[in-house]
Here is the input.
Amino acid sequence: MKFAIAVLAGALTGVVSAWGIGGGTLLVIYMSAFAKVPQQSAQGINLLYFLPTAAAALITHIKNKLVDWEAVIPTVVAGVPAAIAASLLAMHLETDIMRKIFGWFVIAVGVSEFFRKTKPKKDDA
Here is the structure.
């Protein structure tokens, strides 16, 4: 039964990820809160989970000409070292601290999304 629930959680978060909603965040919440996976392990699994979903999305976005290639290089140059530094820091933090940081991050993103004003699309203007 536990295996079936884990597969269902993975499938549902995969669908949500495909919609661009943040299925990986939901996967971390499921693993840490319900499956009792340690926070660091849940976040590591989430990173592995992200790779194939990101690759599939990238292929689709390139095919549909939705990639801003001018933004790719600065994003990679800043993002890779930041990800490495954050992962090294996360290895040395206690699980309780990681959970609190992650929880506050999810709350902050949720609040900012709730109050965000959307700009009209170029097609709508």
